[in-house]
Amino acid sequence: MTETTTHTDYECRWAIDPASAARMGTDELRSNFHVGGLFEVGRIRLTYAHYDRMIIGGATPGSLALDLEAIKPTGTANFLDRRELIAVNVGGAGSITTDGTKHSVDHRDMLYVGLGTKKVSFASADATSPAKFYLVSAPAHATFPTKLIRIGDAKRLDLGSQETSNERSIFQFIHPEGAQTCQLVVGMTTLAPGSVWNTMPCHIHDRRSEAYLYFNLAESARVFHFMGEPNETRHLVIRNEEAILSPGWSIHSGAGTANYTFIWAMAGDNVDYTDVDKVEMGDLR
Predict the structure, then answer these.
(1) Radius of gyration of the chain, Cα coordinates, nearest whole angstrom
(2) pTM of the predicted model, to two decimals?
């Protein structure tokens, strides 16, 4: 039996309306929408956001496996008593054990864990190259089977071009032919060398909140993430393995100093990818 430990930290983020966000400076914007420090070895770091009650976080097991604990905002004895969970490994090889069943989760693989699972633990195959599990959770109303989706099994779309600096590959982990969820929709986008733009032309979707995790950036590289209402945009500077919360009223796009990869995760009323309100370039300010 693998020895486990529990070290979970969490914080809460209240929902911010667009008029308030428009008056914020950089520090206020970062304290409300930027999420850093996700991957600390030996800990689970969670952020409970009051946007569709989404939780994002990171689990980074070292020599000991980490148990996922319930936190006060969930109001339940176990973390998944009323929730579903997706974990994407952005680090070294690892595994996730759900109610006694072990799942090997390699780099860029994803595990969906359904409502009602009592015990979830995360482990690294090699403590010197730990797994880094990016966690996304939302309230659930039904139980769907726990399912491992490897990066090679995700639905792949190749879009964009070098001419517009957005040549990219989109990997849809959750789609109608894949794992079924209550409301979580998760995917990964990898930009080709020489491409830096994501989600431009941009859109909003008032029916869903979203979160981005940017990774695969060099230490000196940065992504300039754009947010805000289309006619009142702002930007935040993001480093490797940092995340952004995106309310339904906000655009969510970015440009990097080099190519990068990001995980996008949504929760809300509709799981249809095409249910968006497109923003014309001429309407951006």
Answers:
(1) 18
(2) 0.96
